[in-house]
Design brief:
mainly alpha, 3 strands, elongated
Length: 126
C-alpha cells in the first residue's frame, strides 16, 4: 500500500481497492482529477468534494509530484468507466424501452404536462 504523509506526519494519500484515495475519505485522486482536468479552481474543488484545505492540498501536491503516473491511472479509470456504462446501457436497453412504452400511470397527467412545458422552455432558444 502506497502512502504519502502530511507535514504533521499523518498519512494523506493511501492506496485502497478503489485506487489512490485521500485518507479518511472515500474520495479518490481520480475524483479530484475530474475537476483538475476541467481547470476548476482549488476552492471550488474543495467545496464540491467537501474536503479540508489540508486534504485538497495533499491531493493536489501528490498529483503534481506524480503527474504521469496519476494521469495514466486516471485514463485507465475513465476507459473502464466508459466500458461499464456501455455494458449497462446494453444490458438495460430492452428494459428502458419497455418502461418508456408503458402508458403513464393514472393521475400523473398534470405533472407530466408541467414537466413537458418546463422541458420545452429549456430546449427553446433564449
Amino acid at each position: 500500500m502506497y502512502m504519502t504523509s502530511h507535514s504533521n506526519g499523518q498519512v494523506a494519500i493511501i492506496l485502497t481497492e478503489r485506487g489512490l484515495t485521500i485518507a479518511g475519505t472515500r474520495i479518490t485522486l481520480y475524483d479530484v482529477m475530474d475537476y483538475v482536468t476541467e481547470q476548476y479552481p482549488p476552492k471550488f474543488i474543495r467545496a464540491m468534494l467537501s474536503l479540508t484545505d489540508e486534504q485538497l492540498n495533499a491531493a493536489l501536491s501528490y498529483i503534481d509530484a506524480h503527474r504521469a503516473e496519476v494521469e495514466a491511472e486516471y485514463q485507465t479509470v475513465l476507459k473502464e468507466t466508459e466500458e461499464l456504462r456501455q455494458y449497462y446501457d446494453e444490458q438495460n436497453r430492452d428494459l428502458i424501452a419497455y418502461i418508456a412504452a408503458k402508458p403513464p400511470r393514472m393521475g400523473t397527467e398534470a405533472i407530466r404536462a408541467k414537466l413537458r412545458a418546463e422541458q420545452a422552455k429549456l430546449e427553446s432558444p433564449a
